[in-house]
């Protein structure tokens, strides 16, 4: 469902159109973990697991999930794992959420309750695959749960210790979003470069709120949990974007829109199922603080006391003679 609503009034099942042919489309993402549920040692049949779960979703929730929206990957070190260890992990994306649409302002609550129902019904179910039983556990990732992230930063600032909860005498609140796992070429200048551009990125994210600062660069992995078993990560093709908004309220509105959505480009079948979170490293604030420290530590010379010897203390040393002990020539002969 697409419309021309602004990010302020966007409902959970609506699409937000951005610049450069991009749009934020609704999705419901679940992380899956698969354990053995019997004494069998037979390997997991990934195709059978997919078919069984897709059929379960259709019969239980009348939701049709294409096979490409259900990713299951077995662990490579399966022979070294204990019986209670998981044998596979995966991701489930439910993108057809139009049936939850309504003109009611209670749509947000309706969607939230439906998601809770889905999690409660799937979590812990046993699937019998050709006589072998497996138990499935599911959870909504924190990057798709705005309230979970809000709780995370409130606890972080409240119990972080020291002056972590305050900055220059004011209560600390996050204002920077970190976005990972989006194609670099979607944020590049067309027919100029395949690398992400600050200008293009700023134009795109301005639709979410007033921006104070922004940084974008290539990214080799999605999040801190990325590992070499994750074959979805292609180094050099994805970018990491940090957007610092003008204030905490602008930040919250933008983060709420980015939660539970994927990025799609007009004319492309690819959907970028990015990971979004708040900046826990205070990248921009730390850079500002370091700059202030550097400015304070560099001595300033008054105009009346300026002399060559004082200035030379902060100039690189340039030898008057070359390695052959010959005077340097100012002009070519």
From TrEMBL:
Region called Disordered, residue ranges: 288-333
Protein name, UniProt field: A-kinase anchor protein 17A
Lineage: Eukaryota, Viridiplantae, Streptophyta, Embryophyta, Tracheophyta
Membrane spanning residue stretches: none
UniProt biased composition (Polar residues): 288-298
Pfam families in the cross-refs: RBD_AKAP-17A
């Amino acid at each position: 469902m697409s419309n021309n609503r602004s990010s302020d009034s966007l409902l959970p099942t609506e699409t937000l159109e951005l610049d450069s042919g991009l749009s934020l489309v609704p999705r419901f993402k679940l992380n899956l973990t698969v354990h053995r549920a019997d004494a069998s040692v037979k390997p997991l049949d990934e195709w059978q697991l997919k078919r069984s779960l897709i059929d379960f979703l259709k019969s239980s929730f009348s939701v049709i999930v294409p096979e490409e929206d259900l990713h299951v990957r077995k662990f490579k070190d399966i022979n070294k794992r204990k019986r209670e260890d998981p044998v596979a992990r995966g991701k489930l994306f439910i993108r057809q959420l139009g049936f939850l649409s309504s003109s009611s302002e209670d749509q947000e609550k309706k969607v939230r309750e439906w998601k809770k129902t889905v999690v409660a019904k799937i979590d812990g179910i046993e699937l019998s695959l050709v006589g072998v039983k497996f138990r499935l556990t599911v959870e909504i990732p924190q990057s798709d749960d705005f309230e979970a992230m809000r709780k995370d930063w409130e606890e972080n600032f409240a119990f972080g210790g020291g002056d972590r909860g305050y900055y220059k005498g004011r209560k600390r609140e996050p204002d920077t979003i970190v976005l990972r796992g989006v194609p670099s070429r979607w944020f590049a200048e067309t027919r100029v470069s395949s690398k992400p551009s600050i200008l293009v990125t700023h134009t795109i994210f301005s639709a979410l709120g007033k921006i104070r600062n922004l940084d974008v660069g290539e990214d080799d992995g999605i999040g801190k949990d990325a590992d070499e078993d994750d074959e979805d990560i292609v180094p050099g093709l994805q970018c990491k974007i940090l957007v610092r908004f003008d204030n905490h309220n602008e930040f919250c509105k933008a983060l709420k829109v980015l939660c539970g959505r994927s990025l799609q480009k007009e004319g492309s079948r690819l959907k970028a199922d990015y990971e979004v979170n708040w900046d826990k490293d205070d990248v921009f604030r730390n850079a500002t603080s370091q700059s202030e420290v550097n400015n304070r530590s560099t001595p300033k010379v008054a105009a009346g006391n300026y002399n060559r010897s004082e200035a030379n203390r902060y100039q690189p040393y340039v030898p008057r003679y070359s390695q052959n002990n010959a005077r340097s020539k100012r002009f070519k002969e």
